[in-house]
């Protein structure tokens, strides 16, 4: 059984999809904990499911690296990222760039979802950037987090056509409809050994 830690900053729709999937006894992963950088409303999904939660606020640390170290320790308290079965850390809407020290602690057992077909449109405004570029197609990527910004190895992608006159909010919502099942499928296949994490020992 793969143990996973999920990190969020907002409403936690991807987290909810993982919780719902993990409720199936045949799902090969268990959510060991859910963490956030703020009092995110999505933490309520975890609390309702009886999953341990924690909040590690950057403002409570002197530096980004210190914040990352405290965050890493909170995850490791739940036996994710330690021992021979390292588990998996899933950034599912965490709206902060993780510090290099944190990334080195967990990567490649550290994945993220991004609302574009990487390497196209990296960064915080991927949907807006796709629309501004007049893209006919975009989508969602699940990738390994490395020390760059959305530069880690791509694990899975799903595409969606951009509709004429579509707003950023509407396109982002349609991308989210793809994102949730793609993340669940990716976690399942990592747990079952069907999908290898590049560089994993």
From TrEMBL:
Its EC number is 2.1.2.2. The active site is at residue 114. InterPro entries: Formyl_transf_N, Formyl_transf_N_sf, GART. Keywords: Purine biosynthesis, Transferase. Pfam families: Formyl_trans_N (PF00551). Gene3D superfamilies: Formyl transferase, N-terminal domain (3.40.50.170). HAMAP family: PurN. Belongs to the GART family. This is Phosphoribosylglycinamide formyltransferase. The gene is purN.
């Amino acid at each position: 059984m793969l143990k996973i830690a999920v990190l969020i900053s907002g409403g936690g729709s991807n987290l909810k999809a993982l919780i719902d999937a993990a409720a199936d006894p045949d799902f090969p992963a268990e959510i060991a904990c859910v963490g956030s950088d703020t009092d995110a409303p999505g933490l309520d999904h975890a609390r309702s499911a009886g999953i341990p939660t924690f909040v590690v606020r950057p403002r409570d640390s002197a530096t980004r690296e210190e914040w990352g170290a405290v965050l890493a320790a909170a995850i490791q308290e739940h036996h994710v990222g330690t021992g021979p079965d390292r588990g998996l850390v899933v950034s599912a809407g965490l709206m902060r760039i993780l510090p290099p020290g944190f990334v080195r602690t967990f990567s490649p057992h550290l994945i993220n979802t991004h609302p574009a077909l990487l390497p196209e449109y990296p960064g915080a405004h991927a949907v807006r950037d796709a629309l501004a570029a007049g893209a006919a197609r975009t989508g969602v990527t699940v990738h390994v987090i490395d020390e760059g910004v959305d530069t880690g190895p791509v694990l899975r992608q799903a595409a969606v056509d951009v509709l004429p006159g579509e707003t950023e909010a509407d396109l982002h919502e349609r991308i989210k409809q793809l994102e949730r099942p793609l993340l669940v499928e990716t976690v399942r296949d990592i747990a079952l050994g069907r999908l290898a994490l590049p560089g994993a020992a």
